[in-house]
Amino acid sequence: xxxxxxxxxxxxxxxxxxxxxxxxxxxxxxxxxxxxxxxxxxxxxxxxxxxxxxxxxxxxxxxxxxxxxxxxxxxxxxxxxxxxxxxxxxxxxxxxxxxxxxxxxxxxxxxxxxxxxxxxxxxxxxxxxxxxxxxxxxxxxxxxxxxxxxxxxxxxxxxxxxxxxxxxxxxxxxxxxxxxxxxxxxxxxxxxxxxxxxxxxxxxxxxxxxxxxxxxxxxxxxxxxxxxxxxxxxxxxxxxxxxxxxxxxxxxxxxxxxxxxxxxxxxxxxxxxxxxxxxxxxxxxxxxxxxxxxxxxxxxxxxxxxxxxxxxxxxxxxxxxxxxxxxxxxxxxxxxxxxxxxxxxxxxxxxxxxxxxxxxxxxxxxxxxxxxxxxxxxxxxxxxxxxxxxxxxxxxxxxxxxxx
Length: 404
Ligand SMILES: Cc1cc2nc3c(=O)[nH]c(=O)nc-3n(C[C@H](O)[C@H](O)[C@H](O)COP(=O)(O)OP(=O)(O)OC[C@H]3O[C@@H](n4cnc5c(N)ncnc54)[C@H](O)[C@@H]3O)c2cc1C
Ligand code: HEM
Hints:
Blueprint: H1 4-19, H2 21-35, H3 45-50, H4 52-66, H5 75-87, H6 94-110, H7 116-146, E1 155-164, E2 169-176, E3 190-197, E4 202-209, E5 219-224, H8 236-244, E6 250-253, E7 270-275, H9 279-292, E8 297-303, H10 312-321, E9 325-331, E10 346-347, H11 356-359, E11 365-369, H12 372-384, E12 392-395
Parallel strand pairs: 7-8, 7-11, 8-9, 9-10, 11-12
Antiparallel strand pairs: 1-2, 1-6, 2-5, 3-4, 3-6
Bound molecules: flavin-adenine dinucleotide and protoporphyrin IX containing FE (HEM).
């Protein structure tokens, strides 16, 4: 427990740290990577280039300081962080390394204002937060390793099939190379994939949601190729997976983790709202719920047009053959090849007001995944339609802090 005097110091100085938060975290990462260059293999170098992880870590430490009298309020943030850390194999012995560099960065940026008392208080506060995370992560590692077919750390998988799902999305079907059992997962969870990135001379890790329902034999991930844009270069890992990972190749992954998953014990309807590649965890949920429960499922999907509409035929076939599944498709810019009423139901972006009769189900849970603007629009629309926040669940495909 934090001593009362240190608690007061942390609360009193949190606004000063917030003011300099970005500079502190930037300096922290510079120091961390200078002293421990190997950690560049663990962190997402694109986030570093774009400053995203800086915001996430600074935000978490400051959120902790401002909730120091009410730590249970941080439970869902802690859950998300611990699942992400566990998926990345973050180890307890790395916490002091991060703590030392964080304190040194605070000292450097604040200069004389960072007195010994202030640094001592923040050191103790960091230690308390680290303890919470380390304990929660140890529990997760143990639980996942103890499951039948579970494991700890990296495991080699063989690519048994590759399937092009659209112009930009390819699925990889992965079976354990050791031929051993394969753990089930909660529909909505993800795995981490590690690859060598020659352009960086580093390994890089990315998360991919499992896009099939648990089946004891294989995992499926479905990866969107992140092309270069007008002002930016192509994504490191997704392009390597698309261009270089062939049938029979080995892919190393960590066990499934993630706090975004459907509650398989509930009996109420499930409404899935996906934009683009955000459909992956929701397809897993849809399959698992239809297969293992009697619940009704509404699957709403938004895509630019038919060319980038992944898994279209199979999703249509599921809706045609399963009366518990309602599928509603929006195309933002349909092409001449896209037939209204067959390929898609509505032109334009997903607009829940146009389909409120189909999506407003008593006691339904809503699962949202897609680009940030898509999610913001859907979460706002659900709120405006009177859906309580506790019934709305979402996954962000990045570290961007999405404040619903
Ligand atoms: C929980 C979770 C689940 C996920 N599930 C999936 C999934 O099922 N399928 C899937 O495809 N992805 C998924 N992702 C996203 C995935 O982890 C990767 O982030 C994605 O594949 C991009 O990685 P990359 O290395 O190819 O791109 P990065 O190199 O990380 O680049 C990211 C993006 O930034 C762009 N970029 C490059 N330079 C700049 C710049 N200067 N300014 C702005 N943008 C720039 C790139 O083109 C790319 O679009 C998930 C992420 C999370 C966190
Ligand atoms: C108290 C200490 C820590 C806090 C508060 C913290 C907080 C966070 C947060 C908020 C995220 C973003 C989660 C998301 O995806 O939403 C994150 C991701 C991450 N954390 Fe931590 N973290 C801590 C310690 C560590 C340690 C010790 C390591 C290992 C050296 C580590 C490595 C990572 C990595 C690699 C990511 C993935 C994001 C990226 O690479 O850009 N963290 N952490």
